[in-house]
Design brief:
Layout lengths: L1 H13 L4 H11 L5 E4 L11 E5 L3 H5 L8 E2 L13 E7 L8 H11 E10 L1 H4 L3 H6 L1 H10 L3 H7 L4 E4 L2 E2 L20 H5 L2 H5 L2 H17 L1 H5 L8 E2 L3 E7 L3
Parallel strand pairs: 1-2, 1-4, 2-3, 4-5
Antiparallel strand pairs: 5-9, 6-9, 7-8
Length: 248
């Protein structure tokens, strides 16, 4: 949880909800009238029916906008709510940070009456992202150690529908692959401060790769190598939406 206490001051500015991703999440929640948001952070993507937000970082909770659902300072592994607290539980880009994944998923299943929605990433796809593959292989190795496979999540959820979530080229939510067509953004310390991977790895590890990226951008090598990306509107960077139904 120290990670999000350290990146929290920049998070609200660089991690603004993207409306296209929000639409996919809200469609997945479907007719759920009440929602518990677990690993809620600053409240991105919370639908109007959110009744509780569960978040361990006080820094993140402090940045929730006025009128947000009440926040409980707690981890996913011990949600301080009774069974069947809401129609749905959602957990967005958070499961790879949990200390005990199985216990956290069990808690989602306990507090949700009908549906569980999880936004995560498929490590088999995400680690081929050019930033990790070409410039930050050490960071990719660290990320791989944290990653949760889609098959494991589906199994823990007791089955789930898996949807690909393409990343728009102008994505407003500054997660790791959001700037796939705007590579210069990764040279901005403020952008990196809102990406948990950078917050967890010492600057001395990523600095050589970022220096190579800066050089490749200045010489045009990056644009030549990735010319196929420049006319694309979206890219599959491995982000996946899992939608599981809770047995009656």
């Amino acid at each position: 949880m120290a990670t999000y206490d350290s990146i929290g001051t920049a998070y609200a500015g660089t991690r603004r909800p993207d409306p296209r991703i929000a639409a996919r999440i809200h469609r997945a929640l479907a007719d759920a009238a009440t929602v518990v948001n677990v690993g809620a952070g600053t409240g991105s993507y919370e639908p109007a029916g959110t009744v509780w937000a569960v978040e361990p970082s006080a820094v993140m909770i402090a940045q929730r906008p006025p009128g947000s659902a009440p926040a409980l300072r707690a981890g996913a592994e011990a949600i301080p709510l009774p069974d069947d607290s809401a129609d749905a539980a959602m957990a967005l880009l958070t499961v790879h940070h949990w200390d005990d994944l199985e216990r956290g998923i069990d808690e989602l299943r306990r507090v949700a009456r009908r549906r569980i929605v999880v936004l995560t990433f498929d490590p088999a796809v995400s680690h081929r992202f050019w930033l990790l593959d070409e410039y930050l292989p050490e960071a990719a190795s660290f990320d791989a150690a944290q990653a949760v496979t889609i098959d494991r999540l589906v199994s823990l959820l007791g089955g789930a529908r898996v949807e690909t979530v393409p990343v728009p080229h102008d994505c407003t939510d500054g997660f790791l692959a959001a700037y796939w067509r705007r590579p210069e953004a990764y040279l901005d310390p403020r952008v990196r401060a809102g990406i948990s991977l950078f917050a967890q790895i010492d600057d001395s590890v990523v600095r050589p790769g970022l220096d190579r990226l800066r050089d490749d951008l200045s010489t045009g090598r990056w644009h030549h190598r990735h010319a196929d990306l420049l006319d694309r509107d979206t890219m599959d960077a491995g982000y996946r939406l899992l939608v599981g139904e809770v047995p009656a």
